[in-house]
From TrEMBL:
<feature type="domain" description="4Fe-4S ferredoxin-type">
    <location>
        <begin position="181"/>
        <end position="209"/>
    </location>
</feature>
<feature type="domain" description="4Fe-4S ferredoxin-type">
    <location>
        <begin position="217"/>
        <end position="237"/>
    </location>
</feature>
<dbReference type="InterPro" id="IPR026816">
    <property type="entry name" value="Flavodoxin_dom"/>
</dbReference>
<keyword id="KW-0411">Iron-sulfur</keyword>
<protein>
    <submittedName>
        <fullName>NADH-plastoquinone oxidoreductase subunit</fullName>
    </submittedName>
</protein>
<dbReference type="Pfam" id="PF13237">
    <property type="entry name" value="Fer4_10"/>
</dbReference>
<keyword id="KW-0479">Metal-binding</keyword>
<dbReference type="Pfam" id="PF12724">
    <property type="entry name" value="Flavodoxin_5"/>
</dbReference>
<dbReference type="InterPro" id="IPR047964">
    <property type="entry name" value="EFR1-like"/>
</dbReference>
<dbReference type="GO" id="GO:0046872">
    <property type="term" value="F:metal ion binding"/>
</dbReference>
<dbReference type="InterPro" id="IPR029039">
    <property type="entry name" value="Flavoprotein-like_sf"/>
</dbReference>
<dbReference type="GO" id="GO:0051536">
    <property type="term" value="F:iron-sulfur cluster binding"/>
</dbReference>
<dbReference type="InterPro" id="IPR017900">
    <property type="entry name" value="4Fe4S_Fe_S_CS"/>
</dbReference>
<dbReference type="InterPro" id="IPR017896">
    <property type="entry name" value="4Fe4S_Fe-S-bd"/>
</dbReference>
<keyword id="KW-0408">Iron</keyword>
Length: 261
């Protein structure tokens, strides 16, 4: 089984490509987390976890959900992390999580995808984003082959910088940066409520047809990037920046890789 968490659609795309290629079932963690569902999941022997990278590790909301969920039948687990630049030393933390769940850790793959964290960085325009997605194809294909044959993913070299990123920087990232108070909707907001629907933590509610943010946020950028009116801002940091949402690229989300392998 392939399980995924996704804010703007990158990890969803990668997960669908892998699930289609391996003919595996697909499970959206967003839906489970949103409904506080940590009930057992029947996975089969192979478990593939596809997630975005938050401060050089998998999102805490994901590791918390995995930690509380029983994966019935799972023996081996592979991790794929979509990112804008790198995943640091994330694999060592994924290994610890695997061991905690009693699963054989088969490694972590880094999949470069378009940047979406507009609270801090700039997202690429559509044409550049399309090229980044196409360039990710060979890396996804290599992972599919490894999983199909039950092989470990290649170990990634990680220096002091990567260890600092996934360790100290990650520990600082959440208490210092992951806050929802800077989000607001401007006068162009139509009150459609899509931000409420896509928030995996139920942190957005509507008040007088305007969204209001609570204190439970994971900075997935789903609300701001999925807003059809582009009415949501994150303080001044997002003003004037292009939004990134995979579905707006016009790329087919499904499709089988390596049909003849």
């Amino acid at each position: 089984m392939v399980v995924y968490f996704s804010g703007s659609g990158n990890s969803k795309y990668v997960a669908k490509r892998i699930a289609d290629s391996l003919q595996e079932k697909l499970l959206c963690m967003n839906e489970r987390i949103k409904s506080s569902d940590t009930g057992p999941v029947k996975t089969g022997e192979k478990l593939v976890v596809v997630v975005p990278t938050y401060a050089w590790r998998i999102p805490r909301v994901v590791s918390n959900w995995i930690g509380q969920t029983e994966f019935v039948g799972a023996k081996n687990v592979w991790y794929l992390m979509s990112c804008g630049s790198g995943i640091g030393n994330a694999d060592i933390y994924n290994r610890k999580l695997s061991e905690k769940k009693g699963l054989k850790h088969m490694g972590t793959a880094q999949i470069i995808m378009p940047e979406n964290y507009i609270a801090m960085f700039n997202a690429p325009d559509v044409e550049i984003a399309k090229k980044i997605v196409v360039a990710a194809g060979p890396d996804i294909a290599k992972v599919v082959l490894a999983i199909r044959h039950g092989e470990h993913l290649p170990k990634r070299k990680c220096g002091l910088g990567g260890r600092m990123e996934s360790g100290l920087v990650n520990s600082v990232f959440y208490p210092v940066f992951v806050k929802a108070k800077a989000f607001y909707a401007d006068q162009t907001c139509t009150g459609c409520g899509k931000c409420v629907k896509v928030c995996p933590l139920n942190n957005v509610t509507m008040n007088n047809k305007k969204p209001v943010w609570g204190k439970h946020c994971t900075h997935c950028m789903a609300c701001i990037c999925h807003c059809p009116a582009e009415a949501i801002e994150y303080g001044r940091k997002s003003v004037g920046k292009p939004r990134y949402c995979f579905e707006n690229l016009g790329i087919e989300e499904t499709g089988t890789l390596l049909r003849n392998q």
